[in-house]
Amino acid sequence: MNGIKRGGPAGARAAGGSPGGGLRLAGNAASILSSDVVIRASAFVMYALVARHLGTRAFGQLTLAFTLFYVWRVIALAGLKPVITRSVAGDHARTGIWWLNASAVVVPATCVSFVTLGLFIAVVGYARDTSEVIALLALGLLPFAWSQVCEAIFQARERMHYIAYGNVPVNLAKVAAVYAVLWLGHGIRAVILVNVASFIVTLLVE
User: Fold this and answer.
1) pLDDT at residue 183 above 90?
2) Total Cβ atoms within 10 A of residue 158
3) Number of other CB atoms surrounding residue 112 within 10 Å
4) Which stretch of DSSP H or E encloses residue 157?
5) For residues 86, 91, 97 and 98, what is the CA-based torsion angle, rounded to 10 degrees?
6) What is the pTM of this model?
7) Is there a contact between 173 and 43 (Cβ–Cβ < 8 Å)?
C-alpha cells in the first residue's frame, strides 16, 4: 500500500506480492463479487415480483425504464469513473480535490442527461403512464452517478469493502421493500420510488 501511495509501480508490485497484499487482493475481490452478485440477484427477484403481482405491462414498463436509465447514466457519469480511479490511485492525497471536481461535473452532466431523456420520451411518444415511470426512475440518476464516483475512489484506494457495505444491505432491503409495497397493493410507481430511494441510501452509506 505504501508503494501505491508513492505512485511507484515497483512498490505496488511489492505490495501485491506480499502476504498482506495477497490477503487484501482476495478481500477486495470478494467484496466486488459479493456486491455484484447481490445487485444482480436483487434485480432478478424484483423483476420476478413485478411480473407476478402486476402483470406483463408493468414488467415491460420496468424493463424499459431501467434500460433507458442505464443508457442515460453514461451521460450523467461523463466518463469520470475510470479517470477518477486512475487519478486517485496515483495520488491519494488529492482524493478530496478529485471528489469536488467530479461533483462539479456530475451535477450539470446529470441535468443534461435528464433533459435529453425527457426530449427522447417526448419524441418517441410513450404512453403517459410509461413516461411517468421512466421520469420517476430518472430522478435516481444524480445519486447513482455520485455513488459511482464514490466507488471509483474506493477502488483507487483499495477499499472495496466499502462498496459492499453500501450495496449489499441496501439491495437486500430494496427487495424486501418492493415485496412489501406489492403486498400492500401498490403499483409500479411505488416500485420505482423504492429503487430511487435505494440509490439515495447507497450514496449516503458510501
Assistant:
1) yes
2) 19
3) 13
4) none
5) 10
6) 0.81
7) no
Packing angle, helices 188-205 and 56-77, rounded to 10:
30
Instruction: Compute the distance between CA of residue 182 and CA of residue 53 in angstroms, rounded to an integer.
Output: 7
Query: What phi, psi does 126 have (nearest 5°)?
Result: -65, 160
Q: What is the pLDDT of residues 150-160, one digit of tens each?
A: 888 888 888 88
* Amino acid occupying residue 54: L
Mean pLDDT over residues 168-195, rounded? 96
Q: What is the dihedral of CA 127, 120, 111, 137, to 10 degrees?
A: 40
Continuous segment of H or E residues that includes residue 159: none
Residues found in the chain:
206
pLDDT above 60 (res 17): no
**114-147: b or e for each residue (b if 16 or more CB lie within 10 Å)?**
beebeeebeeeebeeebbbbbebbbbbbbbbbbb
- Other CB atoms within a 10 A radius of the CB of residue 57 amount to 12
Could you tell me the pLDDT band of residue 19, with boundaries at 50, 70 and 90?
low
- b/e map 81-105, b = 16+ CB within 10 Å: beebbebbbeebeeeeebbebbeeb
Q: What's the CA gap between 48 and 175, in Å, rounded? A: 11
**CB under 8 Å to 49, separation ≥6 — which residues?**
175, 178, 179, 182
